[in-house]
C-alpha cells in the first residue's frame, strides 16, 4: 500500500500548492464495488491517509458492481464540485461517458488499478496500479514450472470488461505460448472478484 499512500500524498500536496482559498480540498473516489476485498483495502487506506490531512474532504462513492451507478457516481462527484476524482473502472468501455462529464468540467482524473479503454485513457491525468500483463506472464511461468510444463488448468477471472481481467488473461496465455508449454486452458469463468463465488466456481470445476 506504500505506492497508494505516496500517490495520495502527492495528489494532496499538489492541490494544496495550487489552491489559493481556505476551503477544504474535495477529493472524489469512485470505486466499482466496496464488497471486493482488494478494493476495500485500497479504500480504507485512502480514508486513513485523508484523515491525517487537515482541510481535506474525501468523498467515497460505491457503485456496488453496477456500471450505470458508477457513471452516475462520477456525474454526482462532478456536480459536487470536487477538485480531483480518483476512480477504478468497473467496465473500461461503459465508464467513459462519466469520465467525459468530469473531464469537460475541468476536473483532473486519476485512474487506480483498472484503466478505461483507449478513449478513456486520453481523459485522465495519471494512473497508479500494477502491470497486470506482466502479472499474467509471471503466473504462467509459475504454473508451467509447478506442473512440469504440461497439464489442464482453468482460469477463474475477476469482472468482465476490466483491464485487470483482460491484461492478466492475455499475459498468462502469452506467457504459456512463449514457454512452448503443453498446459491446456480448459475454460475461463468469472467470479467477479468475490471469494465466495470463486470458491463455488472452483468446486463446480472439480466436480464436473
UniProtKB/TrEMBL annotation:
Subcellular location: Cell envelope
Keyword tags: Signal
Main location per the UniProt record: other
SUPFAM superfamilies per the UniProt record, alphabetical: Periplasmic binding protein-like I
GO molecular function list: carbohydrate binding
Periplasmic binding protein domain mapped to chain residues: 27-207
One Gene Ontology cellular component: cell envelope
InterPro entries per record: Peripla_BP_I, SBP_2_dom
Keyword hit for Cytoplasm: no
Pfam families recorded: Peripla_BP_4
Family: Belongs to the bacterial solute-binding protein 2 family.
PANTHER family the record matches: D-ALLOSE-BINDING PERIPLASMIC PROTEIN-RELATED (PTHR46847:SF1)
Protein name: Periplasmic binding protein domain-containing protein
Organism field: marine metagenome
